[in-house]
Amino acid sequence: PKRVRIRHFLNAKREGVPITGLTSYDMLTAQIFDEAGMDFLLVGDSAGNNVFGYDTTLPVTVDDLIPLTRAVAGAVKRALVIADMPFGSYEGGAEEALHTAVRFMKEARAHAVKLEGGERSRQQIRRIVSAGIPVMGHVGFTPQSEHGLGGHIIQGRGDAAETLIKDALAVQDAGAFAIVLEMVPATVAAEVTKRLEIPTIGVGAGPHVDGQLLVWTDFAGMGAGRVPKFVRQYADVRGILTDAVRRYKDDVASGAYPAPEHSYE
Ligand code: KIV
Ligand code: NA
């Protein structure tokens, strides 16, 4: 299959073809999601919650994400692989941001990077893009600033809509090829989508955006906790695995496994 490139994102928006992505943190899910047609895979710092067992994304480091990104990038044939720049790896300025982005491209062979923030991340995005590295922006609810924002709160409501639009325009102006809108009202996401030339990728941003992204453990019913309102669960992988483990244990207990066909002469 022909690899997805950033020009395909821009063409998709122009042609009105929705873009679809999932997070992935390992080779097997990357292979499955890529073969099933995902346009992009995000190696999100949501690995903090879904791989490393932290309760936020804040403790995640570049060294944590590089091996995961390398596994995902090595597994795909078509999807664009985007590495998420973790908290503390780019806020210090343009040079710090470039250094981190280069590590993801060189050590993990990512195809693009993502970082959070609108106006405040303008210099960082510009510097990375100028080095030939595609950047995906991320505004609205930005989990790395959860403590500054005061929790998991919908962003861009009421008067805050203008600020959100300005932030999205700053990301576009800095040279990003696409932008994630996380947990913003559908009407505001629609307005941002209309105002921008680059595609908007919604995560809890309603239907009037250019693409959708979900955290795979949410969308597949892998996690133990509640999923956000905006998630549709397409599978019950946790239930399937739990059932398989129970049957395996029962079979070992009863002597039904291993059977003769599982034994060597
Ligand atoms: O880390 C992540 O999974 C993300 C998406 C939810 C946008 O940043
Ligand atoms: Na993230």
Automatic annotation (TrEMBL):
* Pfam families, alphabetized: Pantoate_transf
**What would be one Gene Ontology cellular-component term for the protein?**
cytoplasm
One Gene Ontology BP term is: pantothenate biosynthetic process
**Residues in the active site?**
E182 (proton acceptor)
Family matches, as SUPFAM superfamilies: Phosphoenolpyruvate/pyruvate domain
Q: Which GO terms describe its molecular function?
A: 3-methyl-2-oxobutanoate hydroxymethyltransferase activity; magnesium ion binding; methyltransferase activity
User: Where is 3-methyl-2-oxobutanoate annotated to bind?
Assistant: D45, S46, D84, K114
Q: What does it do? A: Catalyzes the reversible reaction in which hydroxymethyl group from 5,10-methylenetetrahydrofolate is transferred onto alpha-ketoisovalerate to form ketopantoate.
Q: What is this protein called?
A: 3-methyl-2-oxobutanoate hydroxymethyltransferase
Origin species, per record, is: Cryobacterium tepidiphilum
